[in-house]
Amino acid sequence: MLIDVHSHAFHPKIAPKVLARLEGHYGIPAQGDGTIEDLLARARRAGLDKVVVFTAAMDPSQVTPANDWALELGRAHPEVIPFGTMHPEFRDPEAELARLEENGIRGIKFHADFQGFRLDDPGFYKIMEMVAGRFIVMLHVGDALPPEKNPSCPIKAARLLDDFPRAEIIAAHMGGYLHWKWSLEHLAGREVWFDTSSTLGFIDQATLEELFRRHPKERILFGSDYPLFSPGQEIEKLARRLGLGDAELEDLMAAASGLLG
Length: 261
Hints:
alpha/beta, 3-stranded parallel β-sheet, TIM Barrel
């Protein structure tokens, strides 16, 4: 089973607005239009069997409708593995998490930088107590600010590993977008999952190779970060930059199968 563990798809009514925000934040043009149809077409062309699709609640009022959208995607498209969303200020997180669990949702995505909290906030720790050992936790990690000023970073992610040893955590973007030197120091080699999303177009060659050398290969997952990037192009970048053959690429893209069941 070949899986893209990091993608996003938006309701057609909001997709253009979300794309504009993403392009403005990261300063790059999106490769896709953000719709589920475009994502799945690109995934099929890339030879992928499944895509993990995220949604995100930018504020507490968006949690329920965002999760409704995730559930709808999962019901309508057998290729989709939807992850839910949660916000530390949501009024009744346990009831919503139970609803997701009852509907077969395997994981929760958190984007502290966009959702307006920090990975070391007490409110987020309360949510982690509810989800650790119960859901896979996908964390956006890293950004342009240094670790002490950024809402997410490899150092905060490492503390979560210490404080929640039962949690299955994926530290996105090889442990931290633009924070790779701290990812090497604080996360590489630990019992945490990395994904390759939003990494290959930004990281220097020596650091990329060092991350792949230090971290267990079976804990590195393929992620495209669609719609900013297209799955097929990201697979080609992986092969080119790391000199991977077809069998090695397939192993990397299949690594998520056990985690996701």
